[in-house]
Each structure stands twice: as C-alpha cells, then as structure tokens.
Amino acid sequence: VGLVCLTSHYKSPKQQFHGLNDAIDMVEKLGISSVIFETDLQILVNSVKKNRQVRKRWGLIVNRCFQFLLMNPSSQLVWIKRDKNRVAHQLALWAEMEPNMDWPNFYPNCISYHIQKDMGRL
C-alpha cells in the first residue's frame, strides 16, 4: 500500500496520515495480515517506528498503525524517496478520476506498469 502527498486528495502531511488510516481500514477489511505500507513522509515513519505519543489529532493514527504492526509482525511501514513512490502517485491520480473504487485484483494499465517496474527492482 503506497501513500503519497502529491495529489489534491492527500496534498498535506496531515492528509497522508489519514491516507494511512484508510489503508489500514482497507487491509483489515480484506483480512490481509502481511502488507508493506510505503510512504515518502519521513515524520510518519519515524513517529510510528518510535511509537511517539503525538499530541495532535494524527497521533491516534500513529498509535493505530503501531498497534497494527505489533499485531501483524509480517507487516511493515517503510520510507521511500518521493521519486520512487510512483505506484502510490499513479494510484492517487487514478483514484481522483475513479473515486470510491477498489482494485483488489486488477489495476489499470498505467499502474500495472509501475508495479511491474518496482517488482523488477526487488
């Protein structure tokens, strides 16, 4: 699951925290216990990994993610460079055109290309 703050939907860091919350909702709904959340927002990753007690509204999301990762040890939250966050960026752009859609098993061609390219780097 990739998070990006370059689109109008998640254009601020605070909104990217809410994107993480939405992503956790989705993986819990689908019953997925092994997932990698990727984000280009370093403060988000640091806050979760260090279990910081943030006294802002998004602190609840930090705690929720920390608890999710604790309960699902095969899951991760990782930081990646913004220019390497292409899959999340393309998904966010596509979601703006097709709101309220889930793509659990099929992705638009413009996104599949980036997924295959990223998988080639593994």
UniProtKB/TrEMBL annotation:
InterPro entries: RNase_H-like_dom_plant (IPR044730), RNase_H-like_EbsB-rel (IPR052929), RNaseH_domain (IPR002156), RNaseH_sf (IPR036397)
UniProt GO molecular function: nucleic acid binding; RNA-DNA hybrid ribonuclease activity
Name recorded for this polypeptide: RNase H type-1 domain-containing protein
Source domain of life: Eukaryota
Biological source species: Trifolium pratense
Span of domain RNase H type-1: 17-94
